[in-house]
Structure formats: structure tokens, C-alpha cells
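Deadline looming. Please check this record:
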Amino acid sequence: MIFQSIKMSVKNTDGQRFSLHKGQGGQHVCRHAVANLRYVNCEGGYVLYASAALKKQGERFDAEQGITLHFRQKDVPYLAYYMRCAYWCRPAFGNVLSAVPKRTQALLYREGNRWRVLWSLCGDVFNCTLRGGEQGLEADIASYSEGENTLNETPVLLHFSGKDPHALLKKAAEAAEKLLGGRVMTVYRKPYPEVFEYLGWCSWDAMRCHISEDRLLSKVAEFKEKNIPVRWCILDDMWAHVKGIKGLPEEMTTHDMVKIMHQSTMYAMEADPDRFPGGLGRAIEKLHAEGLTVGVWYPTTGYWKGIDPQGPLAKELDDILISLPNDNLVVKPEPAAARRFHTAMQDMLKSAGADFIKVDNQTHYRTKYSPYYPVGVASKAIQGAIEDVTEAHFGDALINCMGMGNESMWNRRKSAISRCSGDFQPENREWFAKHIQQCAYNSLFQGQFHYSDWDMWWTDDGQALKNSICRAISGGPIYVSDKIGRSRAEVLQPLCFADGRILRPDVLATPIEKCLVDDPTTAEHPLFISGRANGCGLLAAFNIHHENQAQQGTVTAAEMGLAVGRYFVREQLTGETFVLEKGESLSVKLPDNDAFGLYVFYPLRTAVTPLGRIDKFISPKALLRKNAKGVKLYEGGTVAFVGVDAIATNRRPRVEGEKQGSITVFHLSPDETEILYL
């Protein structure tokens, strides 16, 4: 067991590294420091506790690598869940532990027929992350501040093992919830916010710095004209009164625009008076009148560089702001100050009529507060304020964004939705391969605590169909960001009903076991992502090979976590069908990066098997009720069955079906929802 062989070292602010050896009583000591490690049983696994103190007066731990644990562990195939930047995680694959990326937050690896996970934790002061070192795997315990000389006993690392990797991660997450005592809650106990059960739209990629009341209303008019049932929208970045973004040209590169944004500050807690002449409230009122639920974006820092020191907002909040040496005027990372800022922000948005919010720039603690405040202190104060204030103002209607760091995730008690990838990049095939990896693999870990938001997308993008399948199977929100005049109703039709309600799977989509430690950009088999809906299995297959080579592989029902048995399988794009006998596998071949597939596995247990609305990607979710006599649909449409040729509906005594190979298809009106088998 990995915790039986650990060495410790400490590093001070002068950059000196000191190795500790085990002394009497099991303590790790050297002339500069004393430390202790202990691991205890925790809900069927283990948790490692660490404590340490520097001996010399005036000495402080290094901000980034204060205490380091050196593990003795043989090399194994692994999946690393690591921070690729300050805000977003990405998967990394390997077999040599010395190559584990810096700031790895969890490491899933296979030893023989067993899986193990090491999952690092963030405490009240210090954060723990994993990385490769010269001799193998190491863990850094750091505060990211320069003022700490003592680590009080803190849980820093979870270690769980089991034969089923997906069950293992769930088990570890549930243990973390109990261990951390109310600081975090697993997704299995969080209700899914009702607003996100419907199709949405976001202003960001559509309008960027030119969002305005007039443009928003033009987009809503387009939705009505094209009969696209968008039910909610987000007024994203650039709505606020930020002087630095005034007068930007209509067309500019994303790089240039972001550079300007990140050097800009929030002038006043109100909408830009030029683009919103009637204020935020009037724009939201008009959107409400068009039947939309409205959400509003804001970052934890006011704006990207903080608060404008010359503006009225700085004067209003003067006593809770702090000017840091990095030239940022930001909210003090203290509970009362953070609560007051978010209360003021959300009071304003609530009074303007907002129905929900998106809080961005969450894992900013290293970029804004380091090395002046310990990461655990800052994150606990700010994330706690976001959780409490949002619950009081908007209930569970919150999208967390740019917050995949330990310090954010381990301090969210109740919020249910969180983005799981960097921003959507239009017309970018290379981006799509990275995006699908981020979303699918990040959902293995973040998805234990949040419903994953796979971000907005365009319906007229060259990757639109791929993106629609990703969102369909994701298990999270579905929303687009089409520019004015460019929404394509036919791309959205398979994702939702006529009232905009999406056919959302019952679980988050994640890679199947054979894909967990194989890099999908070099593997011989496709990337297989699995989910479930109404007792049926869902399987999406993508070829993201970096050299555009063909990929081929097989999948059984058991590999998708389904019960052993007979299955009727339908590929949703081509309509091709298969019957898999007990233990048989589905063979999938994808010749290049443009090939992909979406399969539904229906268990064959009764004489009649309803397939649901086959004009929808997640067809089983059209079924509200099913039994031996018939089914009830959410909405009538193109419905199919195996084992019946005629039905009766609540409007017609007999309907003859159309045979299509082994299935029978019925074309029903929207209000034909009650079906009896004949």
C-alpha cells in the first residue's frame, strides 16, 4: 500500500530543501523542521494526515513546495487529472510516474486487476497536489503564501482501491464528503436545477464586447421566427460598466480582446449605459416578456483586473477592498468582506430581475492573492460567500465557471453545476479533440460533485453535429451561442422537445474502463463515452487520433456498467440496428476524425421493447412511463418499437406502423402521448 513508504522534505523561502528522517515516536525530523504523517481508515479507504513546523525563528515555508512527500511506488499506467492553467483541468496519460504533470489533483491508476486513486485535498490553509519528481511520484503541500511556518494536522490525500474504477471514484468522493464535514457534497445528493432542464443560449461567442439590449432582442426575435424553443439565456461578459472595453472595434481577434479585458476593471455595479440605456432591469424585463428566464454573468473579482479605483464602486466598497502589490484592487479574502461584495452584486442583479447567475474566475487565488494570503484561507472565505449568498438569492440556479482547482471544488457545499472545460473555440478541429477529452475525463472527477457543463457551442460550426452529440450525452446543460441570424433549428431539434425541454440522460457521460489509461489521441480504439437514460445504455464513439488514423474497438454492455443480458442496439445517426446476445460485443470502426457514432442499448426483457422518440438523440428519455400494456410519452412524434406492429393512442383507436427492418415506426401528433399495444 502506497502510504507505507513515504519520505518527507521541506523547503524554505530561501529555496533550501531539507530532507527529514524518521526519529523517535515516528516523527520526521531534521535540524530545520519537525513533521508527522499518519494514515487512518476512512470509509473503506485511507486518508493521509500531515503536520509540520519549522524550528528556526523567522523561517517560512516556500510558497509553492513547502512540504514535499516522496512516494516509493513502481511505475503503473495512469490517468492524471491536472490543472493545465490557473482555472481548468485536463487529462494526462502515462506509464512513468516521474512524468506526472505538476498540479495533478487526482491520479487514477491500474495495478494488475485493481484500480487505485490518489486524490489530493485542500485544507483551511494548505493545498496538496501531486506531480512527478526525479525518483517518482511526489506530493506538494503548499499555502501559496510566504508567511506560513506551521502546518497543523490536515487531511491531504485520499487513497482508495477497487476492481471497478467508476465505483471506486464514487466511493472516494462519498468518503471525502464525510471527511470534510459539510465543506463539499456529492452530486448524487444534489437536485438538478430546473432551469437547466431546458434549452438555453449565451451571449458570449455571439456578441462578446458588443452585447446590448437591442442585439439581445434581435436574437430573441430570430428564435421566434425559426421556432427554436430557447427557454433561458445568459447575459455573459461585457454587459457591465467597464470603461476599458468601451469603443472596441466590431471585429478583433480573441487574443487582442482578452488582453484588453484582463487589464480592465469594473467602474460601477451597473450595466454599461451606452449599450443598455434603460439599465439592466429594462433589458431583462423585455426578455422576460418574450418568455425567457434570464441569467447574468459576473466574476468573483468584479471584473478581470478587479475594481476601478477611480469609480463609484471603489468608494462604496472601500472598507472591504485591498490594493495588492500586483496592482489589483480586489475584495479582501475574508468571510465578511466576501459576503458583502457578493451580496451587493446579487442584490443588484436580483432587483434588476435576474433569475440565475454564472459566477466566473473562481480559482483565481494564486493569480490574485498569492503570495499574500494562504490559498485555503482565501478560497474558503470566497467560495463560502458564493455558496451562501447565491443560495439566499437564487437557490440552486448557479453555474460555477473557471473553478476546477482543489481550492474551489473542496469548498462548494451546495451548488450543482460547474463548467468542465476551457472556452468553446469556433471552427477549430484541433480544439474539439482537446475539448472532448477535457469534458469526458474531467467528469470522472469533478462529476462526483457537480453536474458537468460542457459549455456553449455554435449550430453552424463545422463541428456542430459532433458538439450536439457531446451535449446530448453529457448529462448537463445544453446551450448555444449562435450569432444573430445564424441559428440552425434542425441541429437543435434532436436535443429537445417542442417546449425546449432537453432529453437529459440520468448520469454524466464518462469514458468506459478500457479508455481510462489509454491516450485517445494515440490509441487503436475510439474514445468511448458512456451514460444511461431510462434503464438504457448510451454510448458515444469519437475518433480524435492526432494523426487522423482509423480507430476500431469493441464494447460490451458490461463495459458500460449495464446488466448482463440481451440488448437491442440502435445507432442514432444512421438508424442501423443490432441485436447483441448475452456477452456479445458491439464492434465500432471509425475511419478518420470526421467519423463518430451514438448508440442506444435497449435491454430485451419483454415481448415489446419501446425505443422512444427515435428522432431524438436520447430517445429513451421521451418515455415517461412504460409497462407490459403500453407507454406514456412526454410528447408525440416519431416513435418506434421492437415487437409490435400496431398501437392505439389517446386520439386514435388503431395506428398501423411502418416496418423499418426489425423495428416498427409510428408517426404521431404531438398530443398523442398515451399508447397501448395491440
In short: Residues 618-678 form one domain.
